[in-house]
Amino acid sequence: GNSVTQMEGPVTLSEEAFLTINCTYTATGYPSLFWYVQYPGEGLQLLLKATKADDKGSNKGFEATYRKETTSFHLEKGSVQVSDSAVYFCALDGGTSYGKLTFGQGTILTVHP
Amino acid sequence: DVKVTQSSRYLVKRTGEKVFLECVQDMDHENMFWYRQDPGLGLRLIYFSYDVKMKEKGDIPEGYSVSREKKERFSLILESASTNQTSMYLCASSTSGQETQYFGPGTRLLVL
């Protein structure tokens, strides 16, 4: 079946540091890949997505590239801010019925001033 | 903007009680989902619905049931709450043919 594995957290960075959160997946076929973010006290919201190999999703300074050869979708940001502190979830849609998503375990990011 | 609302942000119940969690979306979405979120486990799908009165089991349906009598409303029911159902419950919705799910703010349930 489908599965998503994220790097263990929590991740703690200073403001303006470079961020990478690793995500690898297992799926049959050609899944779409997503990063969702959950700010404190809120539900999840879509951060970015990519629907086919070599696509790059980007939003709010975050980027992730769909790498089919390494089955990865790592999240990066060149300079994090305190306001980026949140939980980040990698997810995939394996193309099964009704848009069901499979989520990774989430990575807590804390950014200090 | 899509809005998904959940009936309670925090809920405290006793073991054995019947618990109803309500979710309402205002964008005429066909698909609705219930997840539970636990530290280190991410989000796990409990049930989903693709149309009124239609429901499908997710990955962890045991101990839960759902109801979808109207398109905009999807209810999660804990028939007899147990302490291992203490968790954060998240509702989401999406429209057919679109993969993006829109989430509510969550209900944090404590079962004593």
Which descriptors apply to this entry?
heterodimer, A: about 110 residues, 6-stranded mixed sheet, 4-stranded antiparallel sheet, about 0% helix, about 50% strand, B: about 110 residues, mainly beta, 7-stranded mixed sheet, 11 strands, globular
Structural description of this entry:
The complex is a heterodimer of chains A (113) and B (112). With 113 residues, chain A is mostly beta strands. Chain A has no helices and twelve strands. In chain A, the strands form three sheets. In chain A, strands 2, 5, 6, 10, 11 and 12 form a six-stranded mixed sheet that branches. Chain A has a four-stranded antiparallel sheet with strand order 3-9-8-7, with no helix packed on it. In chain A, strand 7 and strand 8 form a beta hairpin. The relative contact order of chain A is 0.34. The model of chain A has no long low-confidence stretch (mean pLDDT 93). Chain B is mainly beta and 112 residues long. In chain B, strands 2, 4, 5, 6, 9, 10 and 11 form a seven-stranded mixed sheet that branches. The mean pLDDT of chain B is 94. Chains A and B meet through strand 5 and strand 6 of A and strand 4, strand 5, strand 9 and strand 10 of B.
> What would you call the quaternary organization?
heterodimer
Mean model confidence by pLDDT of chain A? 93
Distance between the termini of chain B: 37 Å
What is the terminal separation of chain A in angstroms? 41 Å
Helix/strand layout:
The complex is a heterodimer of chains A (113) and B (112).
Chain A: E1 3-6, E2 11-14, E3 19-21, E4 23-26, E5 32-38, E6 44-50, E7 56-59, E8 62-65, E9 75-77, E10 86-93, E11 101-103, E12 107-112
Parallel strand pairs in A: 2-12
Antiparallel strand pairs in A: 1-4, 3-9, 5-6, 5-10, 7-8, 8-9, 10-11, 10-12
Chain B: E1 4-6, E2 10-13, E3 19-25, E4 31-38, E5 42-51, E6 54-57, E7 64-70, E8 73-78, E9 87-94, E10 102-103, E11 107-111
Parallel strand pairs in B: 2-11
Antiparallel strand pairs in B: 1-3, 3-8, 4-5, 4-9, 5-6, 7-8, 9-10, 9-11
